[in-house]
Design a protein that fits this description.
single chain; about 500 residues; alpha/beta; 11-stranded mixed beta sheet; two-stranded antiparallel ribbon; 16 helices; binds glutamine
């Protein structure tokens, strides 16, 4: 079929899958276009730790063979998808951007990855991250930094910075990330793409390297809300995963209600959050504009209170390091991980393997966790942190009696420069609007709102919802996207990179 060249930059995931199904182009052509875009753009962005060209072409060839045999194709047929490097995929390394796991190859594939593949996706590679997902800038990767596609002198956010950047750069249509305290929503915000942290338990964590097991959740990035919905359908297809005891069956079809009207529905706003110290004026203005866009479509804004949310960061930086300390104990250079050579005693070997295998932030978190869980200290910090967790969860439950979703910022400000946040506690404050939701276990989505009036960099809003109302979050996200994105159809590929490669004949 002779048509003008189409770029992957402008195709939605659904359009890619439909084009493959209709024979407008083959999955192999799509895979080559994505690999071409990666080849031409990633030397600047460095979103990938590993490009899986062979796996991509194999998966695409299998999709094309299926079509040739007249078999039904999956809803993600031929769609280029990237995976955060804490997710196992047989045939690739899983490094968590750490020397500790450099060269590690898992013998099995994570459920979330497998479900994307089962839906027909083409796996283009593994993306960069903060080491073991500790961070908000991807600067703690042991291998290299990732640049923000909108401004290469700035960070993409983190810890799923590579996944957010790959999507913003048009190197993948969809990417998966994980969010323990904001690691999907904050980089989505800084890179100007949609990022959903589903409700805890909605997506299986089996085969994803654990950070904070009571907080971790996998979710998708896309440039359009619809792409994220399509990815969610694939991730929950097949129901509960028996390999993750916290996994729950999620029924809704995330596409079915995407364009439902928001008329008459209630959007909570928390005045104290909109006045929070550290929130930039341009982000505050953009979030207010998102609220007006919902009101213009007939929604009602209601003020709600989350009185204990100010303690969320403090509680998180007790709970998360304790869980990380416990989870990362397995990296001892014997069962897993880097092994320091030539040591006489096991104790010496373990200690030096861990000293040399982990980076600075990973060590800080584990030492903090070890201290907080030690006897005498435990009662002073860990127990009260769990009490704060209960209070925050109750705050949300009360708020959702008055509203359907809550609108707030996702990140307090736009992308910062490399090295700008050198004090760890400044970095921790990047998650001031996201962490409380992990503590409560609810879902949240970051919705791009174009470029900030002052910085000219991507700004966004966050929508949070009650447990297992993630499809509802996407309905409200879509309402904002419809009103505020170019052509109402989602975020563009970052202009400096758009159009370099990625063309389908
Ligand atoms: N930035 C937070 C932290 O460093 C959250 C990270 C995450 O969600 N993985 O812990």
């Amino acid at each position: 079929m002779a048509t003008a060249p189409t770029s992957l930059d402008t195709l939605s995931a659904r359009q890619v899958a439909a084009g493959v199904a209709a024979g407008d182009f083959t999955a192999t052509e799509v895979a080559r276009a994505a690999l071409d875009a990666i080849e031409r753009r990633d030397p600047e962005v460095r979103a990938f730790l590993q490009v899986s060209a062979d796996l991509a072409l194999e998966a695409a060839a299998a999709t094309d063979a299926r079509r040739a045999a007249g078999e039904a194709l999956g809803p993600l047929a031929g769609v280029p998808v990237a995976f955060k490097d804490n997710m196992n995929l047989v045939g690739t390394r899983t490094t968590c951007a750490s020397r500790m796991l450099e060269g590690y190859e898992s013998p099995y594939t994570a459920t979330c990855v497998q479900r994307m593949l089962d839906a027909g996706a083409t796996p283009v590679g593994k993306t960069n991250m903060d080491e073991f997902a500790f961070g908000s800038s991807t600067e703690s990767s042991a291998f290299h930094p990732t640049a923000n596609p909108w401004d290469a002198s700035r960070v993409p956010g983190g810890s799923s910075g590579g996944s957010a950047a790959a999507v913003a750069a048009g190197e993948a249509t969809i990417a998966l990330g994980s969010d323990t305290g904001g690691s999907i929503r904050q980089p989505a915000s800084l890179c100007g793409v949609v990022g959903l942290k589903p409700t805890y338990g909605a997506v299986s964590r089996y085969g994803v390297v654990a950070f904070g097991s009571s907080l971790d959740q996998v979710g998708p990035f896309g440039r359009r809300v619809e792409d994220v919905a399509l990815a969610m359908n694939a991730l929950v297809a097949g129901g509960r995963d028996p390999w993750d005891s916290t996994s729950q069956a999620v029924a809704p079809d995330f596409l079915a209600h995407l364009d439902d009207p928001v008329e008459g529905r209630r959007v909570g706003v928390v005045p104290a959050l909109m006045e929070a110290a550290g929130l930039s004026d341009e982000v505050r203005d953009a979030v207010a504009a998102a609220g007006r866009a919902l009101v213009d479509q007939g929604a009602e804004l209601v003020e709600v209170d989350l009185p204990n949310i100010a303690s969320a960061i403090a509680a998180y930086y007790v709970i998360a390091p304790c869980e990380a300390f416990s989870n990362l104990a397995r990296f001892d250079g014997v069962r897993y991980g880097y092994q320091e050579p030539g040591r006489a005693t096991l104790a010496e070997q373990t200690s030096l393997s861990r000293a040399h295998g982990f980076g600075e932030e990973a060590k800080r978190r584990q030492m903090l966790g070890a201290y907080l869980l030690s006897s005498g200290v435990y009662d002073t910090y860990y127990y009260p942190a769990q009490q704060v967790r209960t209070l925050i969860t109750a705050d949300y439950a009360r708020a959702y009696e008055q509203c359907d979703v809550i609108l707030m910022p996702a990140a307090p400000r736009t992308a910062f420069r490399f090295g700008e946040l050198s004090d760890p506690t400044q970095m921790y404050a990047s998650d001031m609007f996201t962490i409380s939701n992990n503590i409560a276990g609810n879902g949240g989505v970051s919705v791009p709102l174009g470029l900030g009036a002052t910085s000219g960099l991507p700004v966004s809003a966050q929508l949070q919802g009650p447990a297992f109302a993630d499809a509802r979050l996407l309905t409200f996200a879509r309402a904002i996207e419809r009103a505020l994105s170019p052509d109402g159809e989602g975020a563009p590929v970052a202009p400096a990179l758009a159009g370099k490669g990625g063309e389908l004949a």
